[in-house]
Amino acid sequence: MTAIGHLSTGLFIKGRFPRAPLPLLLFAAALPDVLWVAFNLLRTPAQAPLEIVRVDVPFNYIGNQHLLLQPISHALASTVVLALGVSLLVFMAYRERAVAFAVGAAVVGHWVLDFLVHDADLTLWPTNTARPVGPPFVFDAFAPSHGLFTTRPLLGYALQTLLVLACTMVFLRANPLAGKVGRRKMWAGVLVLCAAALPMFIHGASTKLMTGSSSLLIGAMLEMVVIGWALKWLASWAVGNTPGALDAPHAEPFVHRLLTTAGVGCLVIAAVYLLQSMIDAQTSPRIGATSILMALLYVEAGRRFYKKNPSTLWFAAFLGFVLGPVIRVYTDAGRLGPTLLVLELALAFSSVFLMRTLLRRNLSL
Hints:
By secondary structure, the protein is mainly α. Helices cover 66% and strands 4% of the residues. The protein has twelve helices and four strands. The chain has helices at 3-16, 22-41, 76-94, 97-117, 148-151, 153-173, 180-196, 213-239, 251-280, 285-306, 312-331, 337-361, and strands spanning 52-55, 65-69, 122-123, 132-133. Strands 1-2 form a two-stranded antiparallel sheet. The protein has a two-stranded antiparallel sheet with strand order 3-4. A hairpin with an 8-residue loop joins β3 and β4 (132-133). The N and C termini lie far apart (43 Å). The relative contact order is 0.12.
């Protein structure tokens, strides 16, 4: 599925679990592809890449992308583990099982949708030697490993469009605040987004845009960001902004739980840094030393978060946006560099978003 297909599941799940925040569902639905882009682009020199995508040049249509290796981002087992981890963090913040389940379902749903249309490039287990599974629909008896998007791209596009429209219908039916004008605006916006995905399925329509694997990956990331923002904007335009946890009278306890959750995230990053120091210390003493330093700094950030100190958000943003990347440039990324960068940026962006929210709402903690 392309971005609109995956992210539309956020609308469907929002319709079934109204307490779950739509931005969080959209992020969860895109998370496996975020990891896929990161693991392909963030390669450590002199080491085998974690995941590999190859693009035929000239690029004619979506079937010219070949996912040769993606054992982490698109293995069913690792996707389920990722869903459980994200669900646990969401439960710590919201204390609602339904919200946590909804977010986890959005992550796992990504793999299910890809299974329907991909070639035989998905696996059940996160190993390089795992046997690929699928595709469920075979239209070329001479190439049984080719999926729907490769053999029947326009049929695949039609399937994706029907999925998007069905998810939109479920979302609008579950939100009575949407009047006729709001509903029409959202339908029109969703149809425009579906139409924007069509060139990838038409031979020759995207040839000049895709000049290699890097352009495909960067384009996929930009597409997720734009489509996610557009769906959130359309939903707010159609049904209005529904009350959230920060709008409730008890916003302060919720923010405290968010800070505790951020503290857990810091400890997870610290543990990964310690693991990297054990893996890379012998071959690169500088990586071992700086990894221990970063682990200690994240432990300190976690300690401050547990004390419910909101100023720690600035510290976490500094670690993720500045100190972590600078140290990786100085000492090399290390074997776990791509994983650490994804985790650090996720924490840093979340910290900035929470800081912005607290300042805009003038919440005194």
